[in-house]
Amino acid sequence: MALICRTSRTWITREVIEPVENWVNQRRRTCRTRRRWWQRLWCWFTTILVLIIVWVVRNIVVEILNTICVFITWVIGAILLPFAVAYDAIAGNSNVAGWVRDWFIEPTKISFVSKEDDPNKPKSFIYTFICNCDKTTFSVNASNDVEAQKLATNYCKPRC
After folding, report:
1. pLDDT tens across 84-107, in order?
2. 66-83 residues labelled b (16+ CB within 10 A) or e (exposed)
3. What are 119-132's pLDDT values in tens digits?
4. Residue 5 parent element (H or E)
5. 87: closest CA among 98, 76, 77, 78?
6. pLDDT tens, 135-154?
7. C-alpha distance from residue 44 to each of 9, 21, 47, 53, 69 (Å)
8. What are the tens digits of pLDDT across the range 37-51?
9. Please, what is the Cα angle at 98 between 92 and 104, to 5 degrees?
């Protein structure tokens, strides 16, 4: 799965599904405190309906969106890759083709999280990654993207 698809799937889970599940859990507690039977019945009906919708979204809609995302990103990656390779040949040490492969074409074992300036070293950055094999988060110090990618690969390779 392309990195952009994994990122969007994670966003849907964190920002949409988890808050709704938290609401359902809170709603279950309030349903138990309802005094009249018709209020309880309506409360449980809405809770169960939302649970069914969450199940459909998580198990069907997200999978369909993921499949569409993988296909579209593969097509975009196939279109961008020749331009990225040409840019790498002209620019030298830019590694645009590596980023196109990671974001659009091939499934990756490493997910990029963030890039920040290193306060201790000038012209150096702190890159944060996630090794998807064991779900560990790690940081590397590097002066450019190529060096960071190599360090991240060396860190994650023994874990996979």
Report:
1. 999 988 987 788 888 787 777 766
2. beebbeebeebbeebbee
3. 988 889 999 988 87
4. helix 3-12
5. 98
6. 788 999 998 888 888 898 88
7. 29, 14, 5, 14, 35
8. 888 999 999 999 999
9. 140
Question: What is the rounded (10 degree) CA torsion for 155, 156, 159, 160?
Answer: -150
The tokens 């039977």 sit on which residue? 37
Candidates 24, 25, 28; CA nearest to 53 is 24
Q: How far apart are CA 46 and CA 52, in angstroms?
A: 10
Instruction: Find tokens 């012209």 and name the residue.
Output: 123
Q: Which two structure tokens, joined as six digits, stand for 156?
A: 């994650």
Q: In angstroms, what CA-CA distances link 105 with 3, 35, 41, 76? A: 9, 56, 50, 8
